[in-house]
Amino acid sequence: MLDDLRDLYQEVILDHGKRPRNFRQIDNASHHAHGHNPLCGDQLVVYLAVDEAGVVQDVSFIGKGCAISTASASLMTEILKGKTEVQAKQLFERFHAMCTGAEAQSTNGPTDDGLEEDMERLEVLSGVREFPSRVKCATLAWHTMTAAIDGKDQISTED
Amino acid sequence: MSVMSQTAPYDVEAVRSDFPIFRTEIRGKPLAFLDSGASAQKPQAVLDAMDALYTGAYANVHRGAYMLSEKATAAYEGSREIVRGFINARSVKEIVYTRNATEGINLVASSYGRKFLKAGDAVLISEMEHHANIVPWQLLREQIGIELRIVPVADDGSWLMEEYRKRLDGVKLVALTHTSNVLGTVTPAKEITALAHAAGAKVLLDGSQAVVHRTVDMQDIDCDFYVFTGHKLYGPTGIGVLYGKEALLDAMPPYQGGGDMIRIVTFEKSTWADLPHKFEAGTPAIAEAVGLGAAIRYVEGVGIERIAQHETQLLNYATQRLSAVKGLNIHGTAVGKAGVISFTLDSAHPHDISTIVDRAGVAIRAGHHCAQPLMARLGVPATARASLAMYSTKAEIDQLAAALDVVVEMFS
Fold first, then answer.
1. Which range of residues forms the domain containing residue A77?
2. Any idea where the Aminotransferase class V domain is (chain B) (predicted)?
3. B366 contacts in chain A (CB < 8 Å)
4. Number of domains forming the structure of chain A
5. Model pLDDT for residues B16-39, shown as the tens digit of each residue
6. What is the ipTM metric for this complex?
7. Of the candidates A5, A18, A41, which has its C-beta nearest B375's C-beta?
8. How many angstroms away from the CA of B211 is the closest CA of chain A?
9. pTM metric for this prediction
10. Which helix or strand (DSSP H or E) is residue A137 part of?
11. Structural domains present in chain B
12. B376-387 tens-digit pLDDT
């Protein structure tokens, strides 16, 4: 039984789930948004400090969630630092496609968008594909990040 | 159907053999179904009754003057008599079929509420209500300006009679769960009703989680309205019951207009059918009503009090067994609670718990259980919940406990 589950709960996920990185508030954040998954009650806030050139200087989150949503948020904050807003959104779309199994149909530009390495890191979360009810856990932080960049302050996975 | 002597020891394996779903395996493992509080499995007797109607006696009810329609009508109305007997209502006129308990509450809020309540009147609910017994009253508040008042519950889920009593002044309707779907708390319905009546308030009870676990008697409780759903009572989905005292139902306007609920229709004016049909507009859920009747017959055949005893023994076993899991907290430990165990683990989120135990063939519910205000009260975003039924076994509890040990191992 443990072996089956290792696809979903890989060590990286358990580690980030237990010890999330960048788990803090950013006081001078340029953007932030609240994310809520009403189905399971998970809530988080994503903070971004984006400079005038549109580069993410700092990114963090706080909140409560399951191992999948916490690990996904934690990995996201590590990956987004130093990325442009445009890249952040590209990553979101590719990540979303990966989680829903729509990867092949992704029309997001050429695969040489320089994000391959980041996508490889996110591959640990691809196990949610087999658990449709958990896709929203994996994508909550990403939806929230996108909403923050777009200037919305709230996002719900049911919207 | 296995016939069990009412005096012999409870034979849970005989009961299980009446439920075809237990021949199914989940991921190659026997199914441990611990989510009957969300919806119960169906005995063969229910499937057979619905099948027999569709294959041999199906037509629309209350309409055709021909044999099939008369047969279908007899089956449909016959099931109403079974429901009446099950909750000991005085008359079948007091048994209104609805889609589910939710519709029953909405019917009362809409029909009774808009006719008999006015701005400033208070409706009293509790902290442990299902959304079905919160939102209809909020809608009514928006429509006519009632006040919605909330009775707190104790940390262990116990009913606080004094807190209830203190809030009764100015209350016109008390709308409460008879058994909490999260905490298992059984509210003292009879005393609650007597106090409400003394304060001049009517009482509606949501018995969806109550009728499955114990005998419920309308004459004993004396409440004014009582609702429950069929699918948690081993019956089909799409059928529920609203019990209402005849004089009240008589005084209430129809909930929906349409066929079957009228006596005479002209373009100038229409008059209403007698109870209970006044509240059953349109073609009803005929086969589902018949299925519900069969489910109740099945439950009565096994014996509701024997089921209650079986579930209580199992609840005690499960409470003990789960308490031994490292870092497990049970939410709701009121005395006399029903077979519902909500819990959280220090090490893992309820959704992670549910996903992992599912791999061991164990079905439990994880989430807010349609009781978000109660989750806030308990200070948790969600809980995992194991709920028991007439077919639940110790082996299923053991299967859950072993799976929870795996969760703890993974996450700590």
1. 2-156
2. 33-400
3. 40
4. 1
5. 999 999 999 888 888 999 999 999
6. 0.85
7. A41
8. 27
9. 0.93
10. helix A135-149
11. 12-30+303-411 (3.90.1150.10), 48-300 (3.40.640.10)
12. 999 998 999 999
